[in-house]
Amino acid sequence: KPEVVAYPTCTEDVQAIIQIAKSFSAPIYSFGLGTSLEGHAIPYEGGISIDFSEMNNIIAVKEKDFLVTVQPGVTRSQLNQELKKYGLFFPVDPGANATLGGMAATNASGTTSVRYGIMRDQVRDLEVVLADGTMIRTGNL
Predict the structure, then answer these.
(1) How much is the pLDDT for 23?
(2) What's the topology of domain 55-137?
(3) Got the DSSP string for 31-79?
(4) Tell me, what's the pLDDT at 49?
(5) What is d(CA 16, CA 58) in angstroms, rounded to the nearest whole number?
(6) What is the reported pTM?
(7) Which residues have a Cβ under 8 Å from the Cβ of 49 and sit 6 or more positions away?
(8) Which of 21, 23, 59, 73 is the most buried (most CB within 10 A)?
(9) Residue 1: per-residue pLDDT
(10) Is there a shared CATH topology between the 4-53 domain and the 55-137 domain?
């Protein structure tokens, strides 16, 4: 079991949690919905589990550009429910209602991969908090 479970609501919260973990040399485990078959969400050495369930907002939908900005706790079905209003859908289907953050972390694929590609084919930009607490962007929009 983790020693602490943190529930961030924004990037700044994640940065603060990472800084605290760093100061105590505590391992960090990210957690979305726990649908992962990889087992990476299991805190086997105590530490801090960061539960992203409170970071579940769809920030922007640019339907004409086929772009969406989401927080990591948004689920695949939550996104598809929103996109349906625009006649769009998110094609990556790993077989579970996983979070997009977890799907990005594991490069999820599924039954629609041959036709539409896997998770890496769908992501254009990530806002990432590194192990030292700094935030970077991986792409551009």
Answers:
(1) 95
(2) 3.30.465
(3) ESSS--SS-TT--BTB-EEEEGGG---EEEEEGGGTEEEE-TT-BHHHH
(4) 94
(5) 23
(6) 0.90
(7) 2, 4, 5, 6, 28, 29, 30, 31, 41, 43
(8) 73
(9) 87
(10) no
